[in-house]
Specification:
38% of the residues lie in helices and 16% in strands. By secondary structure, it is α/β, with parallel strands linked by helices. Helix 1 packs parallel to helix 2 and helix 3 packs across helix 4. The mean pLDDT is 97. The protein binds fe (iii) ion (2 copies) and zinc ion. The site of one fe (iii) ion has 3 residues, from loops.
């Protein structure tokens, strides 16, 4: 069965997210761990988490893919920005232990003209400070479109970060279809080749989740503008093929497509599930 869901609002807590997911036949979902601007995250309510776990078990929800705030930039030039990011990362990893064994996705960061090598070292330094041996969460580096000075625009850059992380068994990768398409990888004409390259450079065993998005722009554009599934340059057939690929089909798929309400996601999930059979 296709394990798919979408990004949900976390404002009403975990059980509410579980219910929202179940209402659109989703078995996984994503959410922001905190308001991107606000410093402190809302305190976790253990009763809400308990209710969520019961609900999730009853509704086949097994994987959740938390997303770090967009404002987190562990490769920033300003020490203050890096400190904010590191504090948020450390706090998020503590909070994630309320839902043990789940996934925490982050954008590697932007080097803001310090150069890729400096950026990669800063990201790895922060991860080495934040990760702890007892954590049960796997931290996923998201493949990026290469907009501006974003790091993670190639599989090689992701690999270089992981290589510098001491607790590398806590590290994984989230593949964003819009981002790698914008980064130049041809998932329409050569999905097998792209996945072979991923395997050679990073290793498919590191791949833990997929962000399933269409792209408004042609391959290699480095723009990062998401489109609804079938409403962009990648197209429905190629994205459905991503869900069905033997190397990917058992992973959690998260939609980050532009819809105004849950019904839009529900329709997208239904269509992808129908094509998956
Ligand atoms: Fe993301
Ligand atoms: Fe994404
Ligand atoms: Zn994006």
């Amino acid at each position: 069965m296709l394990n798919i869901g979408c990004h949900l609002s976390s404002s009403k807590g975990y059980e509410a997210m579980g219910k929202a997911a179940a209402s659109i036949d989703a078995t996984t979902f994503a959410f922001f761990t905190r308001n991107p601007r606000g410093g402190k995250a809302k305190a976790i309510d253990p009763e809400d988490v308990f209710a969520f776990h019961t609900f999730a078990a009853d509704h086949g929800i097994q994987t959740i893919v938390a997303h770090a705030p967009y404002t987190m930039n562990l490769a920033a030039a300003k020490g203050e920005t890096r400190e904010f990011g590191l504090a948020a990362l450390k706090d998020d990893l503590q909070r994630m232990e309320y839902t043990p064994g789940q996934l925490y996705n982050m954008h590697p960061g932007s080097h803001v003209k310090q150069g890729v090598d400096v950026g990669i070292q800063l990201i790895a330094d922060a991860l080495n400070e934040a990760l702890f041996p007892a954590q049960t969460t796997t931290v996923l580096l998201e493949t990026m479109a290469g907009k501006g000075t974003e790091i993670g625009r190639s599989f090689q850059e992701i690999r270089q970060i992981i290589d510098k992380v001491e607790l590398s068994d806590k590290m994984g990768v989230c593949l964003d279809t819009c981002h790698i398409w914008d980064g130049g990888y041809d998932i329409v004409g050569g999905l097998d080749g792209v996945l072979q390259e991923f395997d050679q450079v990073i290793g498919l065993d590191r791949l833990k989740a997929v962000h399933l998005n269409d792209s408004l722009n042609p391959r290699g554009s480095h723009k990062d503008r998401h489109a609804v599934i079938g409403g962009g340059e990648i197209g429905f057939e190629a994205l459905s093929a991503v869900t069905k690929h033997p190397a990917l089909r058992d992973l959690p798929f998260i939609l980050e497509t532009p819809h105004d309400d849950l019904r839009g996601y529900g329709a997208e999930i239904a269509r992808l599930k129908e094509a998956f059979l």
